[in-house]
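Z., the sequence and structure:
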Amino acid sequence: MRRFAALVALAALGACTVGPDYHPRTTAQLGVPDVYSLPAGPRAEDLTHWWQRFGDPELSRLVEQARTTNTDLAQAVGRLRQARESLVQSRANLLPTISGSAGYNRSFNLRGGASNLTLPDGTVTTITRSAGDSFSLGADAQYQLGLFGEVRRTVEASRAENDAARFDYATVLVSVTSEVGRNYVLARAYQAQIANAQASLAIQDDNLEIAGFRVQAGLVSSLDAEQARTQRAQTAATVPQLQQQYDQTVARLGVLTGQAPGALRAELAATRPIPTATAVGAGIPADVLRQRPDVRAAERALAAATARIGVAKAQLYPALAITGNIATNATSLGNLASTVTGGLFAGLTQAIFNGGRLRSQVRGQEAAADVALAAYKGTVLTALEDVENALSALTAADARQREFAIAFDAASNAAILGRSQYRSGLTDFTTLQNQELALLSARNGLTGAQADRAAALVQLYAALGGGWDETILPDGRVPPANTGAR
């Protein structure tokens, strides 16, 4: 065994690693610009728990629940565990495989002898019975030494794939968190629009009553009453559609939190305002290389593909296998150490003819690395696109919110004056109707702008890679059995 260990050490020292070494790409190689094309501002805030910036306890509770019970996250954890076990198996190939055996044998000799034995039929025979014991112990060792680094490259690839699986989990975490935030904003926006419609219905009921009185008094024709009825019915018809959209959003929130679609209906029934928060700076484009988990996962996938080239290239060179064994055999346990035999064998194999299959495998892995590089670049560019789209959406929502606030104030004043003038007979119902429609439109426009701003903030937080923390990502190890977790 000492010779076996020495041979393994000498072979390892003489081994070399073929294939390209992985080197991270620079921002210039990835086509990352120095600054965004839109005003971005400095990026200094910690966005790990961005939902807390909205100051909405219900939103925070839903996000935290989804981060522990979402089914997509459970699948990501399972894939991470698979990657972890693949890394463990790859590392095991760096070490020899040792197996042991033990045996016991007892033999009998039933020939001749002087002992009398009476058989069932009364016949008497004589035999001599002798017995012997033997014990054996043995151990075998096998080691497939990667002279040209195929084992080490395999471990390198598995380690990169394990890291990629961790970042894939973080990507799902960011996506689930942002989906909960976006759907929560939508749910509150639909509630606000339903409230807007109901407020308009209350005013239109008054208008219909006033129009009826004026018709009875002979001051106006029945046209005013019919117009009032038409306007009210059209407004009332929007409520069922808004309710349907609200119900669908609440159902989506239930599924995102790992529950039945209707689990949150009672909990979210009370109307709450659309959440709002302060905007953040986006920093510089190079920040996405560190902050976005999908970018980190794509980078690790490229590292794994690069390592696989070395694994394929090593198959073109000789492979060394070393085996060894020791054994002992004795008639008693005390004599097992008296005679020990063993053997050591080293075999070298080299592919001579395979129809070009091995070189084709190398070219295939090189192509896979090119695909991974293109995917990495595409992920980076998509991340930059997400940030710029979110910045644009936030800027537009801010501008729309300012203008709709002015429009709502003006429409409110105009509607008050219009109702007063109609009661006094100073204007016709068509003018009042137009003013009421303008008020409802301005109110819904302001609600929509507020919801768009909140949704743009959620979009920006997610685009910047908010919602995950690298220091607390799982590594794929199975938790202790007494916790009940898997």
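The radius of gyration is 39 Å. The mean pLDDT is 85.

Let me know what you think.
H.
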